[in-house]
Amino acid sequence: MKQILIIIGLLLCFNSVAIIPDRKYVRLPQEVGMIYKELDVVTKDGYRIETWFYPAQPVPEQSAAQAEMLPYKTLDDSRRPTLIICNGDAGNMSYQQISLAYLYAANGFNVVTFDWRGFGESSEFEMDTDYLCYTEMLTDYDAVIKAVCKEKVVDKKQIYTMGWSTGAYLTMIAAHNNKAVKGCILSGTPSSFEDAIPHLVKVHPKGKTEANLLVPDDFPRRKMPSLIAPKFRKDILLVVGSEDNRTPLWMSEKIYNALPEGINKKLSIYEGAGHGGTEFPFFVDWERWAEETIGFMTF
Known about the structure:
By secondary structure, this protein is of the alpha/beta class. The chain has helices at 2-15, 96-105, 136-148, 166-177, 193-203, 225-228, 249-258, 281-284, 286-297, and strands at 20-21, 37-39, 51-54, 80-85, 90-91, 110-114, 154-164, 183-187, 235-241, 265-270. The strands form two sheets. The chain has an eight-stranded mixed sheet, with helices on both faces. The chain has a two-stranded parallel ribbon with strand order 1-5.
């Protein structure tokens, strides 16, 4: 039953086009034998953000899986590269983020996952499901980055961020705003709201209108990916599926073509992949995803 819930959750959280908070965790890291701890993250406006810090660790033995949280320990006292993975606009960090943490922790990275306010076990926050995002999500992201920088096993010169769909543009904005972030990995990235909203109205199967695709008045629209790209000075890997009908290839190309020369940048197109669900690039070609993303962070 739990595996069915995870698959359903993956399909939902990759295919939504507006906020769908999910408060229930379908599994916990210890259930796949992973070591982690909870970070104490509170935003500047007083919201608690549930955050899991996975230190670099070997692939766990199958017998390590248990119901209770495993004792926290690190391989050694070395400072290591660290990847912060945010959520999209649905689901929570108990879905694909645990699988991603499993991958990167086994390859020598610390991994951090977190839930936006109103999601998972983060503080309550009322959300209107007609909104594409909330400005407060950027506040949540900033608080997590700040907390991660305080961890003794984190190499502060090697902090990367990752996000998809809604999480992709929030990740690029957060990387642009935070000097601590070296680079970001984005998948299925909207270029701007001016591009994305009319396109979503055309392709959404349930007939979404612009009235159902709202953006907060105080959201920094001018910091959307294609608009900040000319001034973006961080490493950046843009991933997109050739069959992505939500954030099609031309949006990633628009962002990539606007990026300055002289930075570590790459546009990676996954043939046959779409935007979400089982068509998401890392489901379509997990080995390529692992090789490219790990290679990008060890460039």
